[in-house]
Amino acid sequence: MHTAKKPSMFAVWRSLLWKEAHEHKWKLAALMALAVGTPLLLALTDRSPYDSFPGLETTVLYVPLATLFVAMAAAASERSRDTLPLLVRLPGALRVSALLKFVFGVLAVLVPAYAVLAITFAWPALMEWVDPGMAPMDRFSPTELVAWCGQITLIVTSVFLWVSVLGLRSANEVRAGIVAIVAITAMWGLWGGSYQWLVRDQTHYLGGSLGQSTTDLRAFELLTAAMPGGLVAVEAVSFHRYPRLPAFAVPLVYCLTHGVLLAVWLRHFGAAVGDGRRVNQASPPTAHGAWLEPPMRSRLAAVVWKQYRECRPVIIATVIGAIGFAAYIIFVVQFAPTQRVSWRESASFMASVLSASVFFAALIVGVGAFHEDLSRGVNEFWRSRPIDAGRWFVVKFLAGAALLVAVFGTAALAAEWLSDYPFMMPPATHVLPVAPLVVYAAAVLASVVCRRVVYATLLGLGVSWSVIQLVTEKVDAPFHQIAALLAATAAMTVAAWLAFRNDWSLR
Predict the structure, then answer these.
(1) Secondary structure of residue 154 in the 3-state scheme
(2) What residues make up the domain containing 506?
(3) Number of domains comprising the chain
(4) Domain contains 432
């Protein structure tokens, strides 16, 4: 009897290298299209394309979002796809896979960011070559380019490690992302409150004037370097602070902290997986006294109830997070010796933050509205039943949109009523009631077509952002802007309906 020969470590490395490269090449393509294509499209379709290239603004928005999406996929994708038993059978594959996920994930985020910065650096020379008679533009020096690339590399590495470690034991990508967002938001909330408390008697406070302070914040500065993406705030903490830390202190703390996170990621990626064996558990005893409600007589009521149960956790989490963020800002403002807020201003600010968070909620609800129904097992099951796919889509789509409008539309009306000034937010106030519907429709379309959380979120974000920016830039009249956004929403909804009804997807 011959026993199967175990594969060599070289074969394991080669197989896993091919696997991670194959998976991340599509992430890289999606991120490249989002990071480079969106600002390039906006710059070329602008009324004055020779003014500037929105590269720095895009980088600031792109880096945290892209890092979050890629890291939560690295943390939970193997578990959600049930491919962990395959990795367990290969010798040393768990730690090798964790290391490759870290390397390829960070590179997938950094390469598009580097490309955007390179285009930003070359844009003035390119525009001067296109139009030699144009006025000189502000140039991006090579030193600034290198500094931006270095800072982005350190920030992406930091956020990726924190998100992947926090979501290590999550069952799927969505849960990993939610756990990481809640934990990191809480960390930075405590950081901000502690910072304001330490400098409450100084002239250097959030929203106030910058002045020299004698408060010793050297230990706090080191703590900031260990935070997820904390290098962004280190300079603000150390601004006009005396005495200063040695030059090597902050880099040393950064390396030690994130070295520990990397070790935890490599070690506990395998510990979280286990041995991949299924344990037969005894079925729980039947509760003879239990009573089930009778089935709903209306199919419409049943689908609406199902959609409400699926969207409710996201809506509640967004509402709690927005109210908590607003309460924290109001609490911080109270520390300012010359500023106080009334209850009416506090309520108005809370309602404004809640109404502004509708974009995040619309993206998450849109992606998650059909994600479970379009999974392989559930999709095959319900399509084998006498259910009209078109009506199923319409009811679920309208139920999710109605829930968003009911919760966040009420908050927007409250903000308008409580505030002494009109509730304003760029780029145009009159498109705010319609813009969340664009985000929601784009997210639904991306979810139906892609059927992968990470790709659907990136695609929905890029499409909705591009549509809103193009309409506000190219269309002048407010009524025409609203009509154009509604037309785009209708077009994306019809496309999603056709894809859902005919079971079209890129998978």
Answers:
(1) helix
(2) 310-507
(3) 1
(4) yes
